[in-house]
Design goal:
The complex is a heterodimer of chains A (about 325) and B (about 575). Chain A has about 325 residues and is an alpha/beta fold. In chain A, about 45% of the residues lie in helices and about 15% in strands. Chain A has helices spanning about 15-25, 55-60, 75-90, 125-140, 155-170, 190-200, 220-230, 240-265, 275-285, 290-300, 305-315, 315-325; strands at about 5-10, 30, 35, 50, 65-70, 95-100, 110-115, 145-150, 150, 185, 210, 285-290. Classes of the chains: A alpha/beta (about 325), B alpha/beta (about 575).
């Protein structure tokens, strides 16, 4: 008998890939409710789901065997979603297994090799919301928590398209010591594979897993790999002064311009993507996720970086064009 | 990162490994120990910046001031050491450099190049010089421009490149990593003035550290590593005489001998049959690293010519001679007072032409205003502002004429030496005296290599090198010993009668004293030494880690303090305090 798998956030970057994977297996029936954001009731339609509403979630997960929570959004949405999700699940007659997508952000500014027992250290915002989500999961015995690093792949705005765009315009490159942090990459296909394993494998409930490539490259090395795939060579050395200008001066201005543009109902994608200070902190952070547990219990296998990067760029129109131009 | 001046006078410190000197070697080693579980104390004489009183500790005497630069030049006594002023040229040693060559006395390393290869890869990364690839095709792609179109020679290869570091200042670049490592304590303004041996003279019992503010500290460690460069290492060994009357490791009077730099200069006039096929500038590798081709005398040619290692590059005409009629070169000559000593040496070549010469240079600048302005803009954009700097001035001669810039190996010579001289520095350390000498072998190397190159260019029909063979010796010694390359003074070898350290860079007869420096090179190669210094330092770090693991498995226990009342502070307590 097929398992009924409810995927929350099925329309997102990770959710879509997971749905494609689940569609290929013979043991699962993936279910993907339509979502609407809680602040946008006007978008609500028949069959739509507010992922922060425990009552609606309870109805959606009625009769399912497992739930994958890949809901993205603002910190408030993430925290509210987790609270509602686990409350709804606990109220089920047969509480399902829940695979919660958390993040390495829960480790805050930690450095060194970090395993799943490391203390959580969230300052605020996104990381705090993820920590709060994990707290909710901690009270639910059938939860499996996944803490991926930087998930790249086709259509990854954050870690593929955005990086490629910055490299093409020489806004980043070799950052020197500012780019020597560990780049805990994980290909979206590998994340989807880990989620599937978290759904299927026995004895993983109540466990938490770091997910990233083994021996992660530095950000400088990642940038070089992406630049090589793009043909955006030679890689430029970017001085600290330029990075300071980008993050302290240009980024706030671009953010304001983005919001103003969107407020006017216009498309803001033509604006350059800001490079915020938080990202520069990440580029410096020497945190290396210990993924031994995921390799052992989930059978985590990672796509070779060069191959993953090529696939990621080929999957985005700009990246594909750049690669074709080579 | 602490300051020795802030510690209590008389404080005793202890660590598993004490590294003396936070330059390229010391910092590279310390980084290798990060997170290893070994407590590492990295002692640095200077602070984060250049400090005159500290730098003055380097002052000493030289036998011939025309042949060797003052001892406080080309070296920096500060965090980062001389990487704070280096040019960034990275070149590994060649296979032949490690071999015992029948025609070169005292040549041969205890191991081959293969032993250093894994460490070269990491050294290249630390220098931010990209991948460890020194062939033009593998670094620049198969379509890279040749240096001289149509030049095919079995005596010279034009397919090798040199890579350039940013140039990376190791102090600034790796300070955060050193701070982040919880097992590493960097102690600034900590001058090691003596090493104390145990009564048997076979083990370093401790080091005396002094500050310019008058404090004295003591250090105990399982292992001591001297990473103080090719000159200061000699000074410290020779000045530490509490047990061995001649200094540590100097039982056979070898410490300070075999002092080598490099032989370098410019010579002749090069013209080419097809100037449009000549490229003497920089290329950029895919990683964004500046690279430059060079003409290298092959190993077979060295054997055939019975010469040392030798490379050459195409160069602009001599700057001091206004006859080049190039505005930019004249501008450099006129601005020599504002150019750091280490980079301006060739602007002070002793051929003073007086006011007429100055006026001729002014005339060159005035006649070439656009060329000069274009250069200044290029310099601002690619040298002054970027983190990765354009390595040097490259000028295309208007008349398609070049000079030959060469860099040659010096032959090991026991009579070329560094000793303790007269006088003492502010800390009471005896000053050094340098008597650098070159040999007939050095002259032969350059004479034969230049002659061979001239013949090969002629044979291939690609160009002509006009020079006066009688001037080779005067040209190769015009600027004296190549500045900043201090090699061979504590050379590596198996026999204590002709070497100071063994193949593990351990001082003969002293169990826990090691040297990470170009001073251990038995021969000097054609290559600039920094990359190999770092590779050897990384190899030493790996060796010490293995040694420590063996000692721990044998339940090694460090000797207890000799006086029960001494309060010893472990490095980890300093780091965490």
């Amino acid at each position: 008998m097929k398992q009924r798998i409810l995927v929350l956030g099925a329309g997102g970057f990770v959710g879509r890939r997971l749905m494609e994977n689940l569609a290929l297996v013979d043991w699962a029936t993936p279910l993907a409710p339509r979502h609407r954001a809680p602040a946008c009731p006007a978008q609500a339609g028949a069959g739509s789901l507010d992922a922060t509403d425990a009552r609606q979630l309870a109805a959606a997960m009625h009769g399912v065997d497992a739930v994958v929570n890949a809901v993205a959004g603002s910190p408030a949405t993430i925290a509210a979603n987790a609270k509602a999700l686990f409350a709804a699940a606990a109220a089920q007659a047969a509480p399902p297994r829940i695979v919660l997508l958390s993040s390495m952000a829960v480790y805050g500014p930690a450095t060194g090799v970090v395993d799943e027992h490391a203390p959580l250290n969230a300052g605020g915002g996104y990381a705090a919301a993820k920590v709060e989500s994990e707290r909710c999961a901690g009270r639910y015995p059938r939860a499996v928590i996944l803490r991926p690093g930087c998930v790249y792949g086709p259509h990854s705005r954050q870690w593929s398209d955005r990086i490629a765009g910055w490299l093409r315009t020489a806004r980043i490159g070799n950052l020197g010591d500012a780019g020597e942090g560990c780049c805990n990459l994980l290909h979206v296909d590998d994340l989807a594979g880990a989620i599937v394993a978290a759904l299927r494998r026995p004895a993983v409930e109540g466990e938490t897993f770091n997910l990233a490539v083994p021996a992660p490259p530095t950000w400088n090395e990642y940038f070089l790999l992406v630049a090589q795939a793009l043909g955006a060579l030679p890689l430029r050395s970017v001085p600290h002064l330029r990075l300071t200008f980008e993050s302290r001066l240009l980024a706030p201005l671009l953010k304001i311009a983005q919001r103003a543009t969107e407020s006017a109902g216009l498309d803001s994608r033509w604006l350059p993507e800001p490079i915020p200070p938080s990202l520069l902190r990440l580029f410096r952070q020497r945190i290396s996720l210990d993924t031994n547990k995921a390799r052992e219990l989930l059978g985590l296998r990672c796509t070779p970086l060069a191959e993953g990067i090529r696939a990621a760029l080929a999957g985005s129109p700009a990246g594909a064009a750049a690669m074709a131009a080579r | 990162m602490l300051d020795a001046r802030d510690l209590p006078d008389g404080q005793l410190l202890s660590a598993d490994v004490c590294i003396v000197g936070a330059g390229a070697a010391g910092i590279s080693m310390a980084l290798e120990f990060a997170g290893s579980g070994l407590e590492v104390l990295l002692l640095e004489s200077g602070g984060a910046g250049h400090e005159k009183p500290t730098q003055a500790l380097y002052e000493g005497g030289v036998a011939d001031e025309r042949q060797h630069s003052p001892l406080h030049r080309y070296r920096e006594r500060r965090l980062g050491g001389s990487t704070t002023i280096w040019g960034g040229r990275c070149v590994p040693f060649d296979d032949i450099d490690f071999q015992a060559r029948t025609w070169m006395p005292h040549s041969g390393w205890p191991f081959g190049r293969g032993e250093l290869l894994p460490y070269y890869v990491r050294a290249n990364q630390l220098c931010e010089a990209g991948t460890f690839a020194y062939g033009a095709a593998e670094s620049l792609g198969s379509g890279a421009r040749p240096m001289i179109g149509g030049f095919q020679s079995t005596l010279f290869s034009a397919d090798g490149i040199e890579r350039f570091s940013c140039p990376t200042d190791f102090g600034r670049r790796y300070a955060d990593q050193l701070r982040a490592a919880r097992n590493i304590c960097v102690l600034l303004h900590a001058n090691v003035t003596a090493l104390r041996l145990d009564p048997a003279g076979t083990r370093v019992d401790g080091a005396t550290v002094r500050t310019l503010t008058g404090k004295s500290l003591g250090v105990r460690a399982g292992h001591f590593v001297l990473a103080t460069g090719g000159l200061e290492t000699v000074r410290l060994l020779l000045a530490s005489r509490d047990v061995h009357r001649n200094g540590i490791g100097n039982q056979y009077d070898v410490v300070g001998r075999y002092y080598m730099c490099h032989m370098a200069g410019t010579i002749g006039t090069l013209t080419f049959a097809r100037p449009e096929t000549v490229w003497h500038g920089y290329d950029v590798s895919v990683e964004g690293i500046y690279c430059r081709r060079r003409l290298a005398l092959t190993a077979a040619a060295q054997q055939q010519l019975q010469a040392g290692n030798f490379i050459a590059r195409l160069h602009h005409p001599r700057i001091t001679d206004p006859g080049h009629r190039t505005g930019l070169l004249s501008l450099l000559y006129l601005a020599k007072a504002f150019i750091p000593y280490e980079y301006a040496k060739r602007l002070h070549d002793g051929q003073g032409g007086g006011l007429l010469q100055v006026l001729a240079h002014v005339g060159n600048v005035l006649r070439d205003p656009f060329g000069t302005a274009a250069f200044l803009l290029h310099w601002l954009r690619y040298r002054t502002l970027p983190r990765r700097k354009f390595p040097s001035i490259i000028i295309k001669s208007r008349a398609d004429r070049y000079s030959l810039d060469f860099h040659a190996e010096q032959w090991p010579n026991p009579a070329s030496r560094v000793t303790l001289g007269s006088g003492h520095d502010a800390l009471g350390m005896p000053k050094l005296h340098v008597d650098w000498r070159y040999t007939a072998g050095d002259v032969v190397t350059v004479q034969r290599a230049v002659a061979a190159l001239a013949a090969e260019l002629r044979r291939c029909g690609v160009g002509q090198l006009d020079y006066d063979p009688a001037t080779v010796e005067s040209e190769m010694t015009r600027y004296g010993a190549y500045g900043g390359h201090h090699i061979g003074t504590t050379r590596m070898g198996g026999d204590p009668r002709s070497s100071v350290v063994d193949s593990d860079c351990r001082v003969h007869g002293v169990d826990n004293l090691f040297i990470a420096s170009s001073s251990v090179f038995p021969t000097s190669s054609q290559a600039n030494p920094t990359l190999t210094i770092i590779a050897l330092a990384l190899r030493l770090a790996a060796h010490l880690k293995k040694l420590d693991a063996r000692e721990r498995s044998a339940q090694f226990v460090a000797p207890p303090p000799t006086q029960a009342r001494e309060r010893v502070v472990r490095t980890r307590d300093l780091v965490h305090s």
